[in-house]
């Protein structure tokens, strides 16, 4: 975070989620960043919090590099889940 309170979202994350537009929400002192969606998506209820500073780091933020590692890990897990689901559909 800069002295002006700005953050930079890594281009690798923006490319991974396929957007340059995000929604930032705050609730109970927690800030969440989501890719902006401009239409209703049935998967909206399936969002998973991948990092919560209170839960995961004693209320402290993490360096951007750590966030990128977390995002990559979850992207890989998501890809594996999608591949497994695709294989299951082909077997039917």
Task: Please provide a written account of the structure.
- The structure is a single chain.
- 42% of the residues lie in helices and 13% in strands.
- It has 92 residues and is of the alpha+beta class.
- Strand 1 (22-27) and strand 2 (30-35) form a beta hairpin.
- The model has no long low-confidence stretch (mean pLDDT 81).
Keywords:
alpha+beta, 92 residues
Structure at a glance:
The chain has three helices and two strands; from the N terminus they run αββαα.
Topology (elements, then pairings):
Elements: H1 11-17, E1 22-27, E2 30-35, H2 53-56, H3 64-91
Antiparallel strand pairs: 1-2
Q: Please bin the fraction of helical residues.
A: 40-55%
Output the helix-strand order.
HEEHH
Unreliable parts: none
- Let me know the average pLDDT: 81
Secondary structure tally: strands: 2
* Computed Rg: 15 Å
| Count of spatially separate domains | 1
> Biggest sheet, strands in spatial order?
1-2
Biggest pleated-sheet summary = 2 strands, antiparallel
Note the beta-strand portion. Answer: 5-15%
- Specify the number of helices: 3
- Give the quaternary arrangement of the chains: single chain
Shape: elongated
Distance between the first and last residues' Cα = 49 Å
- Going by helix content, strand content and strand pairing, the class is alpha+beta
């Amino acid at each position: 975070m800069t002295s002006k309170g700005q953050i930079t979202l890594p281009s690798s994350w923006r490319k991974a989620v396929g957007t340059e537009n995000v929604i930032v929400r705050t609730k109970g002192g927690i800030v969440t960043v989501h890719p902006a969606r401009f239409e209703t998506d049935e998967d909206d209820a399936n969002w998973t919090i991948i990092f919560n500073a209170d839960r995961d780091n004693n209320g402290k933020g993490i360096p951007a590099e750590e966030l990128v590692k977390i995002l990559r890990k979850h992207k890989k897990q998501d890809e594996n889940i999608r591949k497994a689901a695709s294989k299951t559909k082909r077997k039917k």
